[in-house]
Specification:
The chain has two helices and no strands. With 90 residues, it is an all-alpha fold.
């Protein structure tokens, strides 16, 4: 009896939930059909059957540390001691 007095609010919440889930589901199906499946049918199968010369290199996907990147010079790394750069508590 008490919950029935809030029926318009619950109807609003279910409407918002339905719209969000509809958009998320539609986006998922669209993304699957227009990007993932064509990716599997081109690069994926080509790599599986050995048609691509270079195989998958996980090092290209890994986040490189600052000093491993080309064109980057690390001047200041891992300071030691008691300098003005440390937040020391006296």
């Amino acid at each position: 009896m008490i919950l029935s007095s809030f029926w318009p609010f619950y109807q609003y919440l279910w409407t918002v939930y339905f719209i969000i889930m509809f958009v998320a589901g539609f986006w998922g199906i669209l993304f699957l059909g227009t990007f993932i499946v064509p990716l599997w049918l081109t690069e994926g199968l080509a790599e599986y059957y050995g048609k691509i010369n270079k195989s998958f290199d996980p090092e290209q996907v890994r986040y490189k540390k600052l000093y491993e990147q080309e064109g980057v010079e690390v001047i200041y790394n891992n300071p030691k001691g008691h300098g003005p750069y440390l937040h020391s508590h006296h």
